[in-house]
Write a structure and sequence with these properties.
This protein is α+β, with helices and mostly antiparallel strands. It has one domain: Aminopeptidase (3-Layer(aba) Sandwich). The chain contains five helices and seven strands. It has a seven-stranded mixed beta sheet, sandwiched between helices. Helix 1 packs across helix 3. The C terminus is likely disordered.
Amino acid sequence: MVSLRPISAMDAPAIAAAVGQSREALRRWMEWYRDDYDECTARDWIDHALASAETGMAFQFAILDADDFLVGVIGLEDISERSGRAMIGYWLATPAAGRGIGRRAVELALAWARTRPRLDVVWAVVADANLASRRILEINQFQLVGTRGVDKRGDTGLVYEISLDNLSVTEPSDIVFGPPLTLSPPDR
């Protein structure tokens, strides 16, 4: 079973460990990755994520596996009730890849997004060569809607979108978010 819960300051060691297990993949796909990423870096990112949650502009969640181990992070960012749009981003620790965890985490995040007032569309940008991430979006009913140029690695950024109104997902009563998933940001 996969679950989500709001990110917390106590997640810094687990995030740093997950990054450590995934350096090659993260170096390839994530612009935020750096070789000296450590627990202090994770703590700084969490502090920024919690501050963004307080403004309502972004919410980051720990992705937990069946044993409640943190195996990645997923978030909704650039949340705009004015435009009704938010961007989804996610990454998984390499040992968790290929087990359906990413697919389920996106499904859960979309179910959470549907609870947000005036949020209509979730979008993502993924490198054309990142077939696994593209597949996760496509399985979750995202549609390819355009491109966003070529990044510094030479990858074309593909833009995917999904309308939350047209989304067919598991009924909310069937979704396990983990302890506790609320609409308000977690305590620090």
